[in-house]
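Thread: Newbie trying to understand structure tokens

Hi all, I'm a second-year student working on a class project, and my supervisor (Dr. K.) asked me to get a predicted structure for one chain before our next meeting. I've only ever worked with sequences, so writing a 3D structure as a token string is new to me. If someone could post the tokens and maybe explain what I'm looking at, I'd be very grateful. Here's the chain:
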Amino acid sequence: MEDHTGGAAQGGALAEALARCVGARIDAAHANPATGLVALAVYDGTRRALGAGIGPRVSGVGILPRLPRLRAGTSHPLVAAMRAHLVGRRVLAIEVRGDGIVIVAGDDDAVMVENDRGGAWGAPRLGLAAPEAGLGPAAVPEPGLRPAAVPEPGLGAAAPRLGLAEPGLGAAARPPRLGSSPGARLELVPGRRGEARLLDAAGHLILRWPPQGGAPQAAVAYPADPLAAGAALVEASDDAAAGQEKAALARAVKARRAALERRAEAVRGDLGRLGSVARLQKTGQLLLAQGARVPRGAAKALLDDWETGGKIEVALDPSRPAKAQAEAFFAKARRYQRGEAVMRARLAETERALSAIAALEADVAAAEARPESLEPLAQRARSLGVSRAELAGEPGTSGARALRAGRPAPRRPFHAYRSASGAAILVGRSAEDNDALTTKHARPHDLWLHAKGVTGSHVVVPLAKGASCPADVLVDAATLAAHFSDARGEAVCEVSYVQRRYVRKPRGAAPGAVVFDREKVIAVRIEGDRLSRLLATKEEG
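---
Reply by user tm_fold:
Sure, no problem. This is what the structure looks like when written as tokens:
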């Protein structure tokens, strides 16, 4: 960070306000990368918050009257890095420079200084450098102590290593704690294209945000009234973030409505197949009566239709005798009949959800872009199956990226369902998709399920490493494994389950075919209410 004293000369009021933060403990670090607001909360008997806007939506610096309401979670890289290297430590120094602000933080008992008696651990007295002077002689050590001759990188050649002044600490300071960290330095460059840089005590870059770096302006204009500037900064950030959240909420609700419409159309198609039950039963009867006349290995058969006097062409499995395949037609007809009640219940549930999502879509369009107005709407959206990632418009999700680019989201090889506790259950969409789900998406410690002894979908329950699957989630997943298999419609079904690490795909095996070890089996009784609840949570792939 280059030294530009012209801008710093305007920052006397800010430097005076920040001087009160020196020696305070850093209690929290927050950021809203979408707007560019970075905030540090400190405490020394009085709570204060320093805020800097580094763009793209907000810029400037000031003392915040409150923390921003809308901010990134702790998993965001900038927030995680600040929490790891700054929070819990004390502010050792703050410098207001022409091109930004430097905040030095560390443990007060892990600062190395020299004294006139051969060197010791101590805590030199720290003063806040005057804006026009830089961090130099203004950092006055305790009598008999002088700062170690290692300048802080980026603070200028005259900047010494700094310690924290504490009453009662002099030349006979405490030794360092084992394992204590020497702290870190945060450099904030306010501006529409500014940046935040976090460095360790040796000056090595820990993290830069934005990752590609900004284009800092030559000098920063500091406010004459830091309190008023901070109030305006946090309000502008929340307003800009709320506008983005409203847009993301509207997109997510629209996408959910489209998914529900696709589901309703699919269920109507399933119900339409109920008309084929009589044809399937008739084909089974004709094949049972005339199968002996069909040559072994035939891929199709022409059967006499006794009712019409014509012919019926039937596709066959060449590996099985034609007569033996009659039961497959009867079984398919039975599955359609048994699934009718479930399909009609699912259609009714989907139509109710469509009605609710349409009402929510209208409310979102009419809502003010303010956190207190949007949060109840976001809760309604989550209750209707919209994920938190979709609501946040997280850039890490391919669906969110595609949505912003105006492209359809890439097809997933699975549909996701939710247990009563909210746990995700992934169900393969086809034989090829089963392979992709099991070999590419499932992790070794996830739970893998499959209906025992019949053809069906692979089912995966994502689990944390070392975690076991809760009993209710296991039953829900087994219910889905049974439903999406040739055992659909049976009252009871056995389902195999193992950790994904014990499932393997043999070389040359057919799509969806796998082998597994350490099998466990659960006999699940299919409950209509449970199945309907699970099917209603479907998230389209």
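A couple of things are worth pointing out once you decode it. Confidence is low (pLDDT under 50) at residues 2-9, 110-181, 394-408. Residues 65 and 231 are 6 Å apart (CA to CA). Feel free to ask follow-ups in this thread.
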